[in-house]
């Protein structure tokens, strides 16, 4: 069986480094907001090219805290893609704001800058581009539009650690960015973890307070804050793995290149591959018009797959108030997408087997 993702196998090359990192934290006797968090924040800010990194508890909190920190008037609108993981939308809701769903570009699956402009209103305060599947949104027209209308740009970079747009890394393409280090992400912790990156000194300081009970000084609370801290153990593990992220992303690109060159089945739609945007292939997502039958075929031949995502956030019971919307591009994507195994534990032989099996599919 080729599993869709075996995190034990993905982490096994790092096993010794991780054990040492955890041991160091245990022996330090300091488990919350100490040298490990400070060290990882400095390393990840350097990696992204930003002035600041603020470690938080998870990716959802990273996005939510930034939106809270901006302190927009209640019911302000935030533009989100219709086809994203629900966390991007929940962050908007938890910050007391209203999500405005827009259709993706039908070929890249990320924001189409033209569709954003069409939904701007007097209440729009921010745009939330999601670098879905590891591919950066076309950020230049988005940030230009944001400047024109006085809007903030919050990147959801949860799936794009290390992705590059032109000369800048994901996390350094807007006013602030939220990262998740959920175990399956390109840079994954061994539990929940997240971070915010920004070049805005004032915002960074506010976020350091907000994640820690609104406090910068023990027992003095300047804001109504949260408890959303990255813990020392996760920070130490992330610091141990970060130096290998670029090499691991390079391996992902190599595997994606094999799929792109090898899969020739006429019914399978491959993801786009172009040179301008440096995709980190968090997921390798293909489309098939009879997705479920196609997935069954692969599973019967011992190939694990997943679906990112089977249902659009606006069609979830949690967002029943938006169920009346008509978003046909997004709906079609949710019907057709299949994610193939793509991770650093996958071998060339396995990839070739997957390619051959797909090309041999007779519906
Ligand atoms: C994983 C993910 C998140 C949320 O991260 P958590 O750490 O699970 O809270 C947000 N947005 C996207 C696009 C994600 O893939």
TrEMBL record:
Q: Which Gene3D superfamilies match?
A: Aspartate Aminotransferase, domain 1, Type I PLP-dependent aspartate aminotransferase-like (Major domain)
Q: Which SUPFAM superfamilies match?
A: PLP-dependent transferases (SSF53383)
For this UniProt record, give its keywords in alphabetical order, as a comma-separated list.
Aminotransferase, Pyridoxal phosphate, Transferase
Please indicate which superkingdom the organism of origin belongs to.
Bacteria
Molecular function terms, GO-annotated: transaminase activity
Mind telling me which InterPro entries this protein's record contains? Answer: DegT/StrS_aminotransferase, PyrdxlP-dep_Trfase, PyrdxlP-dep_Trfase_major, PyrdxlP-dep_Trfase_small
TM segments? none
Pfam families in the record:
DegT_DnrJ_EryC1
Q: Does the keyword Transferase apply?
A: yes
- Which family does the entry's similarity section mention? Belongs to the DegT/DnrJ/EryC1 family.
User: What is this protein called in UniProt?
Assistant: DegT/DnrJ/EryC1/StrS family aminotransferase
